[in-house]
Amino acid sequence: ALKIRVQARPVEGAANTALLAYLAETLGIAKSSLELVAGDTHRAKRIRVPLGGTETLRRLNAAAPNTLTTK
């Protein structure tokens, strides 16, 4: 699990759009390649990322060093 906070309000999908844009930029992939799988109207989201888990963690950690932990 990964916690990300966005400033956009959850009105008409603005927060979802901001989250996907942030992840796409951070991971260096197209926003259209990310898929919101679950949680469209809920605080908890599940997003499909077209990278392997290890590569996703590597890229996120490069963007925000020392902030990620794995269980």
Overall description:
Strand 1 and strand 2 form a beta hairpin. By secondary structure, the chain is of the alpha+beta class. It has a two-stranded antiparallel ribbon with strand order 1-2. The protein is globular, with a radius of gyration of 12 Å. It is built from 2 helices and 2 strands. Helices cover 35% and strands 10% of the residues.
Entry summary:
With 71 residues, this protein is an alpha+beta fold. 35% of the residues lie in helices and 10% in strands.
Low-confidence segments:
none
Q: Any idea what the radius of gyration is?
A: 12 Å
What is the overall number of helices?
2
Mean pLDDT: 84
> How far apart are the first and last residues' alpha carbons, in Å?
9 Å
Assign an overall shape: globular
Percent of residues in helical segments?
A: 25-40%
Strand content: 5-15%
How many β strands by DSSP? 2
* Helix and strand composition category: alpha+beta
Sheet with most strands: 2 strands, antiparallel
Order of helices and strands: HEEH
Strand line-up of the largest beta sheet: 1-2
Task: Name the descriptors.
alpha+beta, 2 helices, two-stranded antiparallel sheet, 71 residues, 2 strands
How are the SSEs placed, and which strands pair?
Blueprint: H1 14-27, E1 35-38, E2 46-48, H2 53-63
